[in-house]
Amino acid sequence: MLEPFFQWMNDLAVSKAIGESIWIYPLVQAIHLLFLALFAGALLIVDLRLMGFGMREQPVARIARDARPWLIVGFLGLVVTGMPQLMQNAMREYFSDFFWLKMYFIPIALIFTFTIRQKVSLADESRFTPLVGKLVGVTSILLWIGGVAIPARLIGLFT
Amino acid sequence: MDIFKPLHDLFFYVSELENSIALRESQYVWSLFEVAHVVCMCFFAGLIVMMDLRLLGVGNMHTPFSQLQKRLFPWQMAAMACSAMTGSVLVFGDPMRFYANIFFWLKMLMMVIAGVNAMAFHYIAYFSVDAWDSARVPPFGAKLAGALGVALWGFVIIAGRLIPYNWFQ
After folding, report:
1. Choosing among A21, A38, A140, which should be mutated to test the B contact, i.e. which has the most B CBs within 10 A?
2. Which pLDDT value is given to residue A74?
3. How many domains does chain A have?
4. Domain extent for A79
5. Could you give the CA distance from residue A36 to residue A77 in angstroms, rounded to a whole number?
């Protein structure tokens, strides 16, 4: 159904220009990884704390509030640097199962992060048992690392 | 005489080992280590950058620095060990490709400098941490270490990502 859209992206002049430059695409990939590190850090510092590790002297809510802007900046940076890669490789991505796996997990992970995870991490700790925190932390890591990051790396390895 | 000959010979020797050949010709094992290396990077670089943002005075400011340092350090070290192991396996599996690659050596060099930066910070600015642990504006030495940390590990990541592009063979 989306094939014409991907074909259109693939044929855009700007997509072709990215493909013809030897350094734009590699640099965009590299910057994508920089934002990945920022995003992963802001994610893990909270998830580890939810699981009972990391900065245990601090309430979860304090760590989560500090990490939030970096999580959002990291995510936006990943989207902005992900788009040129998608455009330049549109047809390869369209036929990649790992690409679609990643695309399905991004909205799931986003919804989880900004509903359940946000509610639990910003709430007063007495409202949830530690088990809830542990489950939320583990789920968050599995969704973002297992559902998004790992399939993302696999796109380029198996095409 | 070429001073790099012993290094070249070592890399070449490894490349001829049966296990090295098996690794680079494997269908899935090579990719498994590529994936694991990126996951390790998420933990290592992610938690390092969280600490550096705190040193720069721009992130995680409601946690005293010494707590971040104490609580994240074991995770950073474990992630570094995993990164080093998965990375070493990849080099073991295709030594000649890395030997001839400028980005690989740049990455190694940046890692050494980043290590020196971390040690220098630990023995100089961190020595007086009690005085600025919760300060809104960390001292110059701490900010410098944070900025260098972000820049150097950033270069490590960029150089690592550029290894497949062998522009300067």
Report:
1. A38
2. 98
3. 1
4. 3-157
5. 8
